[in-house]
Automatic annotation (TrEMBL):
MF annotations from Gene Ontology: xenobiotic transmembrane transporter activity
Transmembrane parts of this sequence: 12-31, 331-350, 357-376, 382-403, 424-443, 455-478, 528-549, 890-908, 915-935, 941-966, 987-1006, 1018-1045
Organism placement in taxonomy: Bacteria, Pseudomonadati, Planctomycetota, Planctomycetia, Planctomycetia incertae sedis
SUPFAM superfamilies assigned to the protein according to its UniProt record, in alphabetical order: Multidrug efflux transporter AcrB pore domain, PN1, PN2, PC1 and PC2 subdomains (SSF82693), Multidrug efflux transporter AcrB TolC docking domain, DN and DC subdomains (SSF82714), Multidrug efflux transporter AcrB transmembrane domain (SSF82866)
Pfam families per the UniProt record, alphabetical: ACR_tran (PF00873)
Entry keyword Protein biosynthesis: no
Origin: domain of life: Bacteria
UniProt keyword Cell inner membrane present: no
InterPro entries linked to this entry: AcrB_DN_DC_subdom, Acrflvin-R
Protein name: Cobalt-zinc-cadmium resistance protein CzcA
GO cellular component entries: plasma membrane
Keywords: Membrane, Transmembrane, Transmembrane helix
Length: 1063
């Protein structure tokens, strides 16, 4: 190693070629680095979905979910199983363990599910897929006051034309009802013609089909035989023969039924800016650029809009590329500002020549990291750019230490090459171990599991390669550059304004040295004399800081609370509410949105005369914004839909181009809606991008619903007894009213069975699927059922006739009894038991969130399990992820600390000295917590990650300081004199490395845009932790060294330096 360093220091051509090679490979690799807003997440989930049309949640649970769970629960590699039984479908989500391959687990699950032969006949084929997060780029809203057919045809035309464009591969219709052809048979016509549903269905299946008939092998060639009688539209179906008389007369389908060629009966629809709409969602695939995809779509929409009539409008919205551009632009601006600050500080502390070469290493290291990013499957995104900013001030630390050492030797020897060689060799070992400890501190983030692990991985994936390249640059390239001064640099230092700066820097440098000798040295001498008191003050300060946390003066949120560029209103009415009623309430909220848009026009100085609210989108029968933003394991870890639900979402001008807060808009919108809202409607507003989850989320599991409901009420009552806890509720929700039919004795006497009655009622009210036909690219169902008018009242059920085996017709009311009850809106299951989630919010001004959480974990939940037999409790949603993530970090952090200890014990050849160096870590944490208090930020997961990274950074200065003390001791200098000499000699380097780290992060900490707030807590932890640890390094570490390394040896030296003769 020493020979390599010496050879590069003596061979500037080799050093420059190495630097050029790093830069060249990095530049070439730029084209292979993807650019995206956030890295692609891997949810590690397998979904098993089984449609069961017309079934209630209870039927779906019994017939679908339970059977799937029992079939797959013991598949190797499964972490957890969660199921949702809802109306018409059952979904089972299987979470795959991090040590298992999701594809192997998927294959095993498919085999198990395919082997189930007890699903109901009416259930459709299971769909088993691995959930993959797709990369949405932009949406196109097609709106018109036109019929649904016209809107759908235009949407399909636009979709096909978009897919024909180069660079677009995936475009989907959203909020478009599937095609369906309905044959409506009324009870009166059935009786008039003496027909049954079964007879009509059989006739249609016999008449509408394509059937291959083999081939005729004639002498002149083979001739294929086929029957092509498939009906494809309403007119074709109307001409199908239902019955033929003995006299040749025919009864056609149009005689006995009305054929409606339309759309499936669903409760979902959408409006865009107050008009009926269909959305097209455009995704990017593979290495497609989000910016290029968005530009292609926007150019197409502009061309297409010019060719359409005024009835239709095409609008792009939800443009992720705008978010990408603004986020990346903000972070790059902060990065450049930080780079300038770092260079200015380097030029202030070091001579211009040293500052120039040290600063040059930053872009070289960054370009080198870009070269390896494709190999690490790392993209340029918000997290990786933040990592570059994070490491900017750290990456120069080793270069500063090397430059200082080289400068010192060159000043003594008056010879450039030899001084560079000796300076680099002298400091190589501590620099190597200092960088290694920093790398170790960042490694825990690379091994985390969970849904967010991909985000955290981006940080070490950038920081670690950058640090490796910084080691190469500082030990192999920098010494060669410092061995001589380029003529241009020499000339620049003599030309104004550089000559002025050179003189100013010389005075500043002299002033810094004077400060170290005249101010710092006496303070250090006093601290060494009163080292026990110094240690006591430091420990007291640390205890006070950790007391601040335990007393709840600093809140902890897993993710920081950040508002977004959308404001959503979730509308909820009692289950069973018809979609028409929900639409009326949604219209009230929508009208308020239009009023808000008009009211705020021209009020924001940044926006000018434009609209602050760009668009508003209404979803009827679903809540897509909530479904996308909520936790996978919270109150709605299932699809959020139903005729009683709706949602209105406002798209605002991006945060960086407006001054008005989204929270202010949310409050005003709430005020406009409140006076007109009916009492049975609930509307929940949200402007949060992250951190909107509930403070308390507890999942309860039990064998029976009765136990769950009782335990839930018990827990809610307990939470309500705590002041400051509000918004307490659970996920249990009563569903629609249900009519349960039971065959009576009269029906049994007529030869009817329960299955006969149930099947005929299903045919009439849900319908019977006669066939499915392929019409173009669409799979169209053909359904046979009562007309819509005969399915609106319960009296129609009583009027319905049931057909017996001998053809007799009897009223349903004569052969069956009906009981009315209330069912479930949905049934959640977790690990093969029914479950629900209890959630609540906490007012942190009144209640200590962490104290309540500990009490829940240690007292309340165990007591709840003891009171309710079979109950299993645990945290859910964000709270569960928080617990899992912190537990993982704690394990990996301990391993990292042990690694740091081992790395320092080897060169120091001591078990005590590494502990002295690592004493800076807890005080760095003190600084990080103090930084959060000063800046007003809550602690978050990002803060914790910053503190872990801080642990590797703060030991670097202490490590170099202790190394200097050891060299002085080996030279025969007394302990106290060695400690004093080390403090003064390393004062400039310690201050400079800390200030550059702080300066590199300052622009980001001062950034007020929404997109930066996600990153700020980590920057605060690192910046303030490093600054506070500087004082610890310069004062406490020397005192600890004097206390624990031969403490009695130089007592007389301490007294002599203080002017006191010991007695």
């Amino acid at each position: 190693m020493k020979a390599v360093i010496a050879w590069f220091a003596d061979n500037s051509v080799a050093a420059n070629m190495l630097m050029a090679l790093i830069v060249a490979i990095g530049v070439v690799s730029l084209g292979r680095v993807n650019i995206e807003v956030l890295p692609e997440l891997d949810p590690r989930l397998v979904s098993i979905s089984v449609p069961y049309p017309g079934a209630s949640p209870a039927e779906v649970e019994e017939s679908i979910c339970t059977r799937i769970e029992e079939a797959v629960w013991d598949v190797d590699g499964i972490e957890e199983i969660n199921s949702t039984a809802s109306e018409n479908a059952g979904t089972v989500l299987v979470e795959v363990r991090t040590d298992a391959d999701p594809r192997i687990v998927l294959d095993d699950i498919k085999v198990r599910v395919d082997a189930i032969d007890t699903f109901p006949e009416e259930a459709e084929q299971p769909i088993v897929t691995e959930i993959v997060v797709r990369k949405k780029v932009i949406e196109v809203a097609i709106a018109a006051d036109a019929d649904e057919w016209s809107l759908r045809r235009l949407a399909e035309e636009v979709r096909d034309e978009l897919l024909a464009l180069e660079g677009l591969s995936q475009v989907e219709l959203i909020n478009a009802r599937p095609y369906e052809l309905t044959v409506e048979l009324s009870e009166d016509r059935l009786r008039r013609y003496g027909l049954t549903f079964d007879e009509v269905a059989a006739a249609l299946r016999r008449s509408s089909l394509n059937l291959p008939g083999g081939a005729v092998r004639a002498a002149d060639g083979e001739i294929l035989l086929r029957s092509s009688a498939q009906a494809y539209d309403g007119i074709d179906f109307e001409e199908l023969v239902v019955r033929t008389g003995t006299d040749g007369s025919r009864v056609l389908l149009r005689d006995v039924a009305d054929v409606v060629d339309g759309f499936r009966e669903t409760d979902q629809a959408s409006r865009f800016d107050g008009r009926p709409s269909i959305q097209l969602r455009v995704f990017r695939v593979g290495d497609q650029s989000a910016l290029a995809v968005a530009d292609t779509v926007k150019a197409y929409v502009e061309r297409k809009s010019a060719s359409l009539s005024d009835v239709f409008t095409l609008t792009t919205w939800g443009d992720e590329s705008k978010i990408l551009e603004s986020r990346l632009e903000t972070l790059m601006r902060n990065g450049l500002q930080g780079l300038v600050l770092v260079f200015v500080i380097l030029a202030l502390f070091l001579r211009f020549r040293l500052a120039f070469w040290v600063a040059l290493g930053i872009p070289v290291c960054f370009v080198g990291t870009l070269a390896v990013m494709p190999s690490l499957d790392t993209s340029v995104n918000m997290i990786s750019l933040f990592a570059f900013i994070l490491v900017m001030g750290i990456v120069v630390d080793d270069a500063i230490v090397v430059a200082e050492s080289v400068h010192t030797h060159q000043s003594k020897q008056k010879e450039g090459r030899a001084g560079a060689r000796r300076g680099a060799l002298e400091i190589a070992q501590p620099v190597l171990f200092a960088v290694s400890t920093t790398i170790l501190a960042f490694l825990p983030m690379a091994f985390m599991d969970g849904a967010m692990s991909r985000l955290w991985f981006m940080i070490p994936a950038v920081v670690i390669p950058t640090l490796v390249f910084s080691l190469v640059e500082s030990l192999l390239i920098l010494p060669a550059h410092l061995s001589h001064t380029p003529r241009l640099v020499e000339w620049l230092s003599t030309v104004p304004p550089f000559s002025w700066w050179t003189r100013f820097q010389a005075r500043f440098s002299q002033g810094l040295e004077t400060f170290a000798l005249k101010r710092y040295a006496p303070i250090l001498r006093t601290a060494l004399r009163w080292r026990f008191a110094t240690l006591a003050v430091a420990v007291g300060l640390m205890a006070t800081t950790f007391g601040v946390i335990s007393n709840g003066m600093l809140n902890f949120n897993f993710m920081p609370n950040i508002e977004g560029d959308n404001v959503a209103a979730q509308i909820k009415l009692p289950p069973g509410t018809p979609i028409e009623r929900t639409t009326e309430v949604a219209q009230i909220v929508e009208d308020a949105a239009a009023q808000l848009q008009e009211e705020l026009r021209g009020t924001d100085p940044k926006v000018g005369d434009g609209d602050l609210v760009q668009h508003y989108f209404t979803a009827l029968g679903s809540q897509p914004y909530r479904a996308n933003s909520q936790s996978n394991d919270g109150l709605g870890g299932k699809s959020i839909g139903g005729a009683h639900l709706a949602e209105v979402t406002l798209q605002l001008v991006p945060s960086e181009t407006r001054e008005t807060s989204a929270t202010v808009l949310e409050q005003r919108w709430r005020e406009l809606v409140a006076p007109n809202l009916p009492p049975d409607a609930e509307v929940e507003f949200s402007a949060a991008l992250t951190g909107a989850d509930k403070d308390v989320q507890v999942r309860l599991r039990a064998p029976s619903t009765e136990t769950l409901i009782a335990a839930s009420q018990d827990l809610q009552d307990t939470l309500a007894s705590y002041s400051g806890v509000y918004g307490i509720r659970d996920s249990y929700e009563e569903g629609k009213r249900e009519v349960d039919l039971d065959l009576g004795p009269a029906g049994e006497q007529l030869g009817l069975r329960q299955a006969d009655v149930a099947r005929q009622v299903r045919q009439a009210f849900y319908g019977e699927e006669v066939q499915r036909m392929q019409r173009g690219r669409d799979d169209v169902r053909v359904m046979l059922r009562f007309p819509a008018a005969e399915r609106r009242e319960l009296s129609e059920l009583e009027r319905m006739r049931v057909r017996t085996a001998d053809g007799a017709e009897v009223p349903l009311g004569d052969v069956a009894t009906a009981s009315l009850s209330r069912g479930y809106a949905a049934i959640d299951r977790s690990n093969r038991q029914r479950s629900l989630v209890v959630e609540a919010d906490i007012d942190t001004q009144v209640q200590n969130k962490e104290a309540l959480r500990r009490e829940l974990e240690e007292t309340i939940l165990p007591g709840l399990e003891a009171r309710h037999a079979g109950l299993v409790t645990g945290f859910s949603g964000t709270e569960k992820e928080r617990s899992d993530s912190l537990a993982q970090l704690a394990r990996y952090y301990v391993i990292a600390l042990l690694g740091i200890f081992a790395l320092m014990a080897i060169p120091f050849r001591s078990y005590v000295q590494p502990l002295l160096v690592m004493s800076a870590i807890p005080f760095g944490i003190v600084g990080a917590i103090g930084g959060h208090l000063i800046t007003g930020h809550d602690l978050s997961m990002l803060s914790i990650l910053g503190i872990i990274a801080l642990s590797g950074v703060v030991v670097n200065d202490s490590l170099v300081l202790v190394d200097f003390v050891n060299r002085e001791l080996r030279a025969g200098v007394g302990l106290i004199d060695a400690v004093m000499a080390a403090g003064v000699a390393r004062f400039r380097a310690v201050i400079l490395t800390s200030v550059t780290t702080f300066a590199g992060l300052t622009p980001l900490m001062l950034e007020r845009s929404v997109q930066a707030q996600f990153m700020v807590p980590m920057a605060v932890s690192l910046a303030f932790g490093v600054m506070f640890a500087t004082a610890i390094t310069l004062l406490l570490v020397p005192c600890l060294f004097a206390l624990f390394v031969r403490p009695a040896v130089d007592e007389e030296a301490v007294a002599r330096d203080a002017g006191v003769v010991p007695v």
